[in-house]
Design goal:
The chain is an all-beta fold. It is 0% helix and 46% strand. It has no helices and 13 strands. The strands form two sheets. Strands 2, 5, 6, 7, 8, 11, 12 and 13 form an eight-stranded antiparallel beta sheet that branches. Strands 1-3-4-10-9 form a five-stranded antiparallel beta sheet, with no helix packed on it. Strand 6 and strand 7 form a beta hairpin. It is globular and about 40 Å long.
């Protein structure tokens, strides 16, 4: 089983955030067809608005606050799935038939989410089970939205398409993965 590799997320040039020193993410296929994900945000955390366990947010708007995300599709297919994970432990999934064409999402059990905050680092780890993902080859986009205390947002991704921040753009699904079929 391949080890998770830390991949640097790049801030969109239109939304710099000086309080963030580094933001890395990793993805590792699991033998049972699942996926282990991790995001590590380092910087001046006091300058960032990071929801804690006592802060409840509207699930459909987790992305409007500090949030770690993964977009998962199959090469050559228009359909994809978006997962949002908040540092407060909430999560949300959206299914799309094509670019921003949202379709009904079947109810699935919650993924395992763990959050650790120490000093100047926030780490969020997720285990998505096989039933959360299509089997076989995947293309994935690891992303994050970081909200500053002053209200501005920065947008982080492995790769940004030209123009405004757009995590739904297929060009952003820059990570090729192969998950085993359980």
């Amino acid at each position: 089983m391949p080890a998770s590799v830390d991949l640097a997320l790049v801030c969109h040039p239109d939304s710099p955030e000086p309080a963030v020193r580094a933001l890395v993410a990793g993805a590792r296929p699991l033998p049972d067809g699942g996926l282990a994900l991790v995001w590590r945000l380092s910087g001046e955390l006091a300058a960032l608005r990071i929801p804690d366990a006592a802060t409840r947010l509207p699930p459909e708007r987790l992305w409007a606050h500090t949030c770690f995300e993964v977009f998962v599709g199959t090469p050559g297919e228009a359909a994809y799935r978006e997962f949002n994970f908040s540092p407060n432990g909430q999560w949300m999934r959206f299914d799309f038939a094509g670019y921003r064409e949202r379709v009904e999402s079947p109810v699935l059990p919650a993924p395992q989410i763990t959050v650790h905050r120490t000093g100047d680092t926030l780490e969020l780890a997720v285990r998505l089970d096989a039933h959360h993902l299509p089997p076989g080859e995947l293309c994935a986009g690891l992303t994050a939205v970081v909200e500053a205390v002053v209200g501005r947002h920065s947008y982080w991704s492995l790769r940004h398409p030209a123009g405004k921040p757009d995590f739904h753009h297929r060009e952003g699904l820059a990570l090729a993965l192969r998950v085993p079929t359980p």
